[in-house]
Amino acid sequence: DGGITQSPKYLFRKEGQNVTLSCEQNLNHDAMYWYRQDPGQGLRLIYYSQIVNDFQKGDIAEGYSVSREKKESFPLTVTSAQKNPTAFYLCASSIAADISIYNEQFFGPGTRLTVL
Amino acid sequence: AQSVTQLDSHVSVSEGTPVLLRCNYSSSYSPSLFWYVQHPNKGLQLLLKYTSAATLVKGINGFEAEFKKSETSFHLTKPSAHMSDAAEYFCVVSDRVSGTYKYIFGTGTRLKVLA
Prior knowledge:
Helix content of chain A: under 10%
Largest interface: A-B, 29 and 25 residues
Distance between the termini of chain A: 35 Å
Strand content of chain B: over 45%
Oligomer: heterodimer
Structural class of chain B: mainly beta
Distance between the termini of chain B: 41 Å
Number of strands of chain A: 11
Order of helices and strands of chain B: EEEEEEEEEEEE
Largest sheet of chain B: 6 strands, mixed
């Protein structure tokens, strides 16, 4: 059963702590993305990766970090430098990021992060 | 840069009546447009996409959208709403930035279906 998995579904963090959100895909996609969703604001791009061991900042990368050591995995770390981390985080993947404007992105089920 | 505007943040319809969710875009070239649906606390699911092959695009669950270049619109419609259609809907345009294609999201329209 192909798709994207994210874990955990819900995550609670104390202020000052770093937390890592997991994203795994078995679609054999080259490109992976992390988005943040806040009510009434749509989705905003945090980081994306077109290939293993390479990633680029999106529109709101400050306070976040990522790694891409394997094609299947693209974990996101929310650091203590992120001032307002409470949000819904969505991971996505696509075949590639630079081949076609028509390539669709496939989304995981999301992780809801709450800072206590 | 491309942009997308969803004209209504909330839409309410009665079950069995037509649905219209409006989306306008700005683009300096032929765009790629998508509609996604999101149920509460879930990921996004693709409903349909415009790829320039046909201006009327049919998607899943009875939804369709018409690309109108003269109006720069890509409105989503469904002839008869079902209770299960209650969700948030996002219009998305794909933009080429520094050699890669990125999604630009609208702010979403929350559809409420009344019994």
